[in-house]
Amino acid sequence: MDIKSTIDIKPTKLNAIIFGNSGCGKTTLASTLPGKTIVVSLESGLLSLRKFNVDYVEIKSITPKSRYEQLQKTMIEISKSDYENVFIDSLTDIAQTFVDCAKEDFPDPKQSFPMWGKYNERINSFLKYTRDMDKNVFYTALMKTEKDELGRRYNVPDLAGSISTKSAALFDFVFPMISFKNEEGELKRVLITSSDDTYISKDRSSSLNAFEEPNLSNIINKVFNQGEKND
Question: What's the total number of domains in the chain?
Answer without folding.
Answer: 1
